[in-house]
């Protein structure tokens, strides 16, 4: 499977220990003195709210702190992320993007010392931990903190499914509501490509992403960075071909796979991607499979799917999979997305 179920210590208990007894791992930052009361009740309420927020502030200066070790393991280990259902989101921009729709998913917000809490995060009810530059570098894996002012420890999205032993359609109930477009990734191991494809699928309003075995972890730090928050918004499933067949059957979905025209491993005809082909598929439910650049499509994909290629001029055999995927996702986007674009002035 994509995410191994490995034996790291249960981090839920670890995270709980931070919440129930934070003094053991975090040194509480002193609360600033209250401002003088003003005449109006509305003005008096602001210092009170600020004081309550300040009481949640904590500080970590040592890279040996247990919270720092927990965060580093979240960044480096897919098995650890899977076991505790937590992930690390690095950078203020993706954090703010995610906070627009799921602020409660954050356990801890790590901010670089001296950085003000962003206005968009003032309603955050969890712990705000101010960290030294050394800690920020350690947790983020970056050589510089110039562009890394914030890190969030957060729950994995509720719309992520690792099917594991639940290889039936019931495991996907509530995740997809009669999907019209599903992107299937077959052995995509480069996290930058995988994250970019998830971002493109989200941009063109596809209904979800299904990851076949040998794909990299969608919550890998590089994949998250490339997805720019899309992997926290779009339903993602990690499963096998058996689970995918269940999905196809349940929703009566057509299977197509992107394939280079010049490849010799295609034993059947290949469609050319065109407006006419896209128009003919507008009212059909579709799974689009994209394979890795190195190994191409698996034998299961070649057997199960109709093949389609992007016609190109010149001597180039193929495009980078994230570039080709963007073209496919745009051309084959769902009908309601096309209709909404046409109706928008």
Automatic annotation (TrEMBL):
Species for this entry: Urochloa decumbens
A GO MF term: methyltransferase activity
Domain tRNA/rRNA methyltransferase SpoU type: 182-330
Gene Ontology BP, a term: methylation
Protein name: tRNA/rRNA methyltransferase SpoU type domain-containing protein
InterPro entries for this protein: Alpha/beta_knot_MTases, Ribosomal_eL30-like_sf, rRNA_Methyltransferase, SpoU_MeTrfase, tRNA_m1G_MTases_N
Superkingdom, natural source: Eukaryota
Signal peptide: none
A matching Pfam family: SpoU_methylase
The keyword Ribonucleoprotein belongs to this UniProt entry's keyword annotation: no
Keywords recorded for this protein, A-Z: Methyltransferase, Transferase
């Amino acid at each position: 499977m994509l995410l191994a179920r490995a034996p790291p210590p249960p981090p839920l208990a670890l995270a709980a220990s931070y919440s129930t007894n934070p003094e053991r791992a975090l040194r509480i930052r002193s609360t600033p003195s209250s401002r003088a009361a003003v005449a109006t009740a509305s003005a008096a309420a602001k210092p009170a709210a600020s004081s309550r927020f300040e009481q949640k502030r904590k500080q970590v200066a040592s890279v040996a702190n247990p919270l720092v070790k927990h965060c580093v393991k979240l960044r480096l280990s897919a098995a650890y992320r899977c076991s505790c259902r937590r992930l690390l989101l690095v950078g203020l921009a993706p954090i703010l993007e995610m906070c627009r729709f799921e602020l409660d998913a954050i356990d801890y917000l790590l901010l670089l010392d001296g950085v003000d809490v962003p206005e968009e995060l003032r309603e955050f009810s969890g712990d705000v931990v101010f960290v030294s530059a050394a800690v920020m570098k350690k947790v983020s894996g970056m050589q510089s903190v110039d562009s890394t002012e914030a890190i969030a420890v957060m729950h994995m999205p509720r719309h992520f499914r690792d099917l594991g032993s639940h290889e039936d359609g019931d495991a996907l109930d509530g995740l997809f509501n009669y999907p019209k477009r599903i992107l299937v990734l077959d052995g995509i191991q480069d996290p930058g490509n995988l994250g970019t494809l998830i971002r493109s699928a989200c941009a063109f309003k596809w209904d979800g992403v299904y990851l076949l075995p040998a794909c990299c972890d969608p919550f890998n730090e590089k994949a998250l960075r490339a997805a720019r928050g899309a992997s926290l918004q779009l339903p993602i499933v990690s499963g096998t071909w058996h689970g995918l067949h269940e999905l196809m059957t349940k929703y009566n979905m057509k299977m197509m796979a992107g394939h280079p025209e010049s490849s010799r491993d295609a034993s059947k005809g290949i469609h050319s991607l065109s407006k006419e082909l896209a128009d003919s598929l507008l009212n059909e439910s579709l799974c689009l499979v994209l394979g890795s650049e190195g190994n191409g499509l698996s034998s299961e994909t070649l057997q199960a799917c109709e093949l389609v290629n992007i016609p190109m001029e010149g001597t180039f055999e193929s495009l980078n999979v994230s570039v080709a995927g963007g073209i496919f996702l745009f051309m084959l986007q769902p009908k309601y997305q096309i209709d909404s674009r046409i109706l928008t002035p």
